[in-house]
Each structure stands twice: as structure tokens, then as C-alpha cells.
């Protein structure tokens, strides 16, 4: 589903590579943690998958898309196969919960009747039924992240990328969000989550890919965050 072949990325303004000779393969339906200290290249990894950056060297595949070679007009098609969740939720503050989720479908031209049907379904899936008409500021952080997950998932993407999705949440709320991501993963969606959260990585015992200075230094099938870090 995701494959990086000998990928390096050197940003124009930096002499040191953000990623160096990274090869990683993620199968359909896997759940993978991407860990590593600040500046190790996690966000760069995710940005390459979205074609927000192109590699300096190597090849990036997502599903059947050869990402770096994709003509500009086909980039939206790539991005429709990928849902994204961020630490800071990134909700539209002037829209209700339901409108935030609906908007993701409107922008890709889904018919109104589909939107009316699937938005309540996905809100139920994430445990927000009954909160459809709330504004984001009327929700807790955990609830806002559920809206963001609903929005990322409503189009049933093949891949869900989560960049520090629990970074602004307390431990209990973080566990709830992880249960939700597991649930989404069980539908067959491939989940790739960048995180610094030791306790979550240790409790989930999923695949762990660790980056350090842009290199993969560990790839464990059922990993933990690491001792003494
Ligand atoms: N747009 C950019 N231009 C120049 N250098 C960049 C750019 N984005 C990232 N870098 C550099 O690339 C390296 C990797 O950064 P990246 O953001 O991928 O790391 P990260 O592991 O996601 O860090 P964090 O956990 O703090 O988000 C760092 O040295 C960073 O300074």
C-alpha cells in the first residue's frame, strides 16, 4: 500500500538530508507507528506520501500511484485515497460538526443525498451522534479530534495518516482516540501514525518504524517505544 524505495530528501535550505536512503514497505491494512526524536524526519515522510514534497532521490508509491511522478492534475486523486489527522485538529471553526465532515465530501463533488446519508453514519462510528449541530469550540479536545477523524475517514480512504493525533490530549482521551484508530484500522484502512507518545506505542504493540537523523534505525513487528527514551 505504501512503499519507499531508497528515498532521500534534502530541503533546499538545509545541508543535512531530512531523510536518507529510507526503504519502508507497509502492507494494506497494517497499523504502523513512525517514531523518532524531533527533527528525525517523521513529518517529511508523511509529506512525501501526500506529494506535499517530492523526494530528492528514490521512489514513493502509495497504492498504485508513483507519487513523485504523478502529473499535477492527478494529485487530487492521490490525496483522495489518503485521510489526514493532525495534532491541532484543524477544524473549520465557523462550521458545525456535521458541516465540517460534509465539507470534505462537498469539495470532491459528492452528491447531496450521499452526504446526507453518510455524515450521520460516520459521526456514529466515531461516537459523536447527538453532537452533529455543535460548533467546534463547544467540544472537548478529544471530541474535536473525533470530528477530525470522521472528516478524514468519511470518504473511506485507503490510508489514514495521523501526525501526533494525541499530542494535545490527556492520557485517557488519548487511549479513546487510539481505540477509534484501531477500529478504523479494522475496516481494512492502513494507518500510519507519527508519535512521541511512549505509553501509547508501548500499550498497542504494533509495528514500529524508528527514524533518527533521517535514517530508519529500527523496524519491529510488535515494537515498543524503546528503553530509556
Ligand atoms: N521545509 C523545510 N525546509 C528546510 N528544512 C526542513 C523543512 N522541513 C523540515 N526540515 C528539516 O528536516 C529535518 C526533518 O524534519 P521533520 O519535520 O520531518 O522532522 P520530525 O521528525 O517530523 O520532527 P517533529 O517531531 O519535531 O515534528 C529537520 O532537520 C528539519 O529542520
From TrEMBL:
It is a peripheral membrane protein. InterPro entries: AAA+_ATPase, ABC_transporter-like_ATP-bd, ABC_transporter-like_CS, ABC_transpr_LolD-like, Cell_div_FtsE, P-loop_NTPase. One of its GO terms (molecular function) is ATP hydrolysis activity. Residues 2-227 form the ABC transporter domain. One of its GO terms (cellular component) is plasma membrane. Keywords: ATP-binding, Cell cycle, Cell division, Cell membrane, Membrane, Nucleotide-binding. One of its GO terms (biological process) is cell division. It comes from the Bacteria. It is found in: Cell membrane. Part of the ABC transporter FtsEX involved in cellular division. Has ATPase activity. Belongs to the ABC transporter superfamily. Homodimer. Forms a membrane-associated complex with FtsX. NCBIfam families: FtsE. This is Cell division ATP-binding protein FtsE. It comes from Saccharomonospora viridis.
